Amino acid sequence: MTGDYAVIALYIAGMLGVGWYGLKLAKTKSDYLVAGRRLGWFMYSGTMSAVVLGGASTVGGVKLGYTYGISGMWLVVSIGVGILVLHALFARRLVRLKVYTVGEMLDLRYGGRTSAVSGVVMWGYTLMLTVTSTLAFATIFKVLFDLPNWAGIAIGGSIVVLYSVLGGMWSITLTDIAQFVIKTIGILAILLPVAISSAGGFDGMSAKLDASFFSFTSIGTDTIITYFVIYTFGLLIGQDIWQRVFTARTPAIATSGGITSGVYCLVYGLAGALIGTAAHALYPDIASAQDAFATIVERLLPTGVRGLVLAAALSAMMSTASGALIACSTTTTSDLLTKLGLKKGGEVSRNRLATLLLGLLAIGIAMVVDDVVNALTIAYDLLVGGLLVAIVGALFWKRGTRQGAYASMVAGTISVIAFMIIDGVDANTPIYWGLGVSLVVYLAVSLATPRTSDTILSVWTRRLSGAEETPIENREQEPTSA
Fold it and tell me: Cα(216)–Cα(224) distance, rounded to whole angstroms?
């Protein structure tokens, strides 16, 4: 495997080199958190694709394909649909707002005092999202070096933390573009055709597998619907995704680049399911479906090429892990620490320190979590059940109030956690109960409390139109006792 080692070593060296270059670009808070809001179409589209297609979409997507066949594509397809809807309906508005976090948007719309609660929920979501991609590193390093899971997680996680700390969003953006190219070549151009051909093509796979592997609904209609509820809605409101939207140079670039990214995600989802289906036809006795990706790469590909495909998988994991990590750091410093009275000044250094500490925390959690899909489900259940109603209400319902948003976030989050305990993490009920309770509470409390003041709504309207860029901390706030 000397050739594989050489390819992986070059890849890792390249990522660290790009991270070091990003250090020179990250001079201000805007540079560190949103790449100076200067990305053009190609960089925006590539980095958006890279951040949403991580370990769960690659290793997890192949795992679902190995278990359910073509129907395993729906998890990643639901992510692609979320990207399409986000950029068709919301992206232009978000770019004009000139904020850094989802919490800042909520404060701007409702008049303040909501970002502490939304920040806690978003912090949990982005941290768990970082964990899922960090956890997936174990698969790659097990194939390469036969390392135990904890060692693979430590190595992969440390690389991500290092280049993320150095240059923030600039380092992450530049590495994401390289990772996007490697992932496209390794997964779509190499592994997909080799896997299908080795399994005898579609005729060969049909002869070896049950007909259910070629049904689009074999995973279960309820599961497909739940994927769309969790992941499509989750992609509409996640801090990691919004933070990438904020990097676009113009609203038009965000829209066109994002739609391109969404189509790419649909193709990637189908590819992962087909690779998993081919793996089942070739190796039906794999002990754990989680190892399907590593098995087909290890057994089918020659040295060197195998290293490139493993680098592609590392790319998928690292791009999502780094994007989620910088989002978690941004939420921590902008939404949580500021509410504790942290003074301004030294913001880049503060974000670097937060990124480092949170990265180490994610590595530690990943060492004790053993299922990438379940970890991702926890993250998205909390996000969608806790925040979706308040965020959509902010964008589309003027009668929504700060008190209604605050109460809905608390009630929805508690409901999700409660039903995870009652019915289990992998149950469908937590997300539905969270959304239902959150919606009822939001409507009831908003209608029972005074309307948001015209002054606050006028500032919101001007910001949405791009006519005003008043710093969020300088706007009028509603009295906390209202």
Answer: 10
